[in-house]
Amino acid sequence: MQVRKKNITRFTQPCRQSKSLKYNKMKKIKYTIILFLAFLTIAFYISGCKDPDPVYNQVRQELKDWGAFKEGTWWVYEEENLKIRDSVYIYLQETEEFRLDPRNQPNHYDYKIISHFASSTNIDLGLYDVSSIGSGPLMRREMNDGGEHSLQCYLVVPPPVQGDFIRTGGPRQHTIFDTIYPKLQIGDNEFTNVVRANNNMNLFYNGTPTLLYSAKHIGIVRKEFPEYNQVWNLVKYNIVH
Fold it and tell me: 22: domain range?
């Protein structure tokens, strides 16, 4: 009986070891599969949370043609009655990006072209603001009060339509593009595609009424200030787009 027990012990012990090895191997495979599935879950979660690529709204060429001027651009104006002159020049052009409302346009950005200008008399001191989401080129002051960008005015809303109406700055301030000239003679110069902006309260010029004439690819070609009985005509210019 003892021999038989020894024989049984001798032959059953390797069998138990084999079962133990198989169990450990299956356990390792199980843990490996669990870790692999966890890794895939985390990877999919991270990829799903990643923000989409940003979208930059580009400025339409039509807007650039009316208000995007580079360094080297200048205009010389002459007052009709006094025969005095004033020069306006672009001294810096830069671009700006602004993130739009993430609730309405997630990951979308407004692209702006800003052309800073000054004048020899400091009457015209500010910038041209051409935005990818704007109605048209704005002329506004560097510093504003009474609200962001309040000291501003629209020059044109391309493509120009005679009789178009737009509010600027506040409920009392508005601009009517009352006349479109296919051709307009000013002194020795003839300009085409000229739009007259009739602003009842131009905050850029301290709230005075103005009539501003703008030509495509040129800029402002004539400025009328009825309260001051002044008319400034463009006599010389150099445009860099």
Answer: 1-50
